[in-house]
Amino acid sequence: MLAIGIYGLLTNRQLLKVFISVELIATAATLNFVMLASAAGVGLGEAFLILAFSTDTAVSGVILALLVIVSKKYGTSDISKILQMIQNKDNSEVEA
Amino acid sequence: MIFEILAVGLIISAILALFLDEVIYSVAALAGTFFFSSLIYVENGAIFAAIFQFAVGVGTLAILFLSGEMLGDKPTKKTSPKRTGALIGAGAVLSLPAIFLSVSGPTGTISDISFGDALWNVRGLDVILQAVVIFTVALGIAIGLHEKRKGGK
Fold this sequence. Notes:
Chain A has about 100 residues and is mostly helical. Chain A is about 90% helix and about 0% strand.
């Protein structure tokens, strides 16, 4: 699942899909903690899960804030379209 | 056997969450991912982890439904059933290592508390019900926005 999340993070152009990829990576990491703790018979995995979720929530908040700002400024959440808009704007400034 | 079925469901829903074009369907597949991971935690005796995962997952899904409808771009083409079937097949193939290379031994019990106790005595049910209420509200708002968007086409 970690590999699927990393592949999605590297290849997706939609910011929302990037966010979903980050969630998949976080879920894979927490699943890993709990499974290892279950195999070892200790309860530390659940404590790590809570810690990992707090970190994941903070990261998710930052990504969502970026998503809102970018969507409001450029009217789209497609990374390639945003880059094209920025390049067109730079080219028009250079020509001017 | 149950673990293998849950692992296959988890990976298939993860792939669908990434590769489906409509945001609503992607988020629904992500809901499946969180649900299957919660069930895996329950199967391994980590009841609190399962309840926590469920509650946090519901909050994340509520935000994703709303932001997907308000901020996401509309897909240019609809996902064909053939593509969905191919994604499910790819997910099943990718989950084969989880079945044949599984390192899970006898499941160790992490929590001393039983599932019923966790729900009734330690207020786990309260957390789940609150999460369901928040999720229902967010789903209702997302459906309203989706219909409004369709009407404005």
